[in-house]
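## retry 2 of 3
previous attempt timed out at serialization; input unchanged, resubmitting
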Amino acid sequence: MKLRKLDQTFYDENTHLIQALDNENGKWIPGKTRGHGIVVISINKLTFAIPLRTSIKHNAAYITQKSTEKGIKGKGLDYSKALLITHSKYISDEIFLIPPEQHKNIQGKEFFITRKFEKYVEKYIKAVKNKDKHILNNMEYRFTTLQNYHHQLGV
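## retry succeeded, writing output
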């Protein structure tokens, strides 16, 4: 599983996204589009970039390093901020470096990470179709970027 960055063209061509990291009200925050570290995963013929984050507070994630800070689960891959990748040009060839301990916790876990993300997406699709406010308003889905991709997800 390779760690990469989003290319600047992704930011230039996706200003419409809701709840994306570093995007507020349809505008990328100047100086904040620093090239998030991402892992690229394909499910149901769709390709997603799952960003690495440092202060994850919910369970919709694969934690690579636990936190001792109250209310913070840790560092890892945040499924709730996954971005649909529609063009390969959006993935930079530049390698994203993380501490060796975290990298070790990702390597060899591609099947597990992909399956867990797949379940996250499936639960979201079902909740949207059933208009399940209980699920859609919980911490894992309230601020999800999946709301940008209803057409592609078939909801």
